[in-house]
Amino acid sequence: MLAANKPDLVRGWRAKDALPRIDSLIQIAPVLETTPEYLAFGIETEANQSVPKISWVNAGAFGTADPVVDISDAPRVEVAGLGDGEFYALDIIGDSMDRISPEGSVIIVNRKDKRLVQNACYIVLDGHGGATYKRYRQSPTRFEPVSTNPAHEPIFPDNDNIPEIFGRVIMTIVRM
């Protein structure tokens, strides 16, 4: 155990009323089951949540992905700051949302958040197994692309009959 091998490390901080070096905090934080940020500044960081990456979603026309049978076998994405909800990660295919989530990025969707909010983004279902990723707008009600490609057009629900919502997109993860 790291702390047992260096008892003078902590004793020296207390006796000298000195600030520890950051490399010392990085070494001892796991032993104390905390973070270096908490030891140095009292800042509590949010714990990561392991989110299953269940499939992909088409940012374009409605697309049908292979169904996920068992999410316990799904790859995981570690994400901080999610709070309460039922979260899933999806790969983005297509460019109809490329100003927010470019093709190849990963989005995090809260399955429990289906309340429509102006300018929020959602996974929209077509009722036939297809899904797409779009931004919700009102007056008139529509789900629209946020794209650099002008070929993509909004989806206008018939008679304001809102399609089923899989969940609200709350985060995009883009590799640099």
Automatic annotation (TrEMBL):
It comes from the Bacteria. Transmembrane segments: none annotated. Gene3D superfamilies: Umud Fragment, subunit A. Pfam families: Peptidase_S24. Residues 54-170 form the Peptidase S24/S26A/S26B/S26C domain. InterPro entries: LexA-like, LexA/Signal_pep-like_sf, Peptidase_S24_S26A/B/C. This is S24 family peptidase. CDD domains: S24_LexA-like.
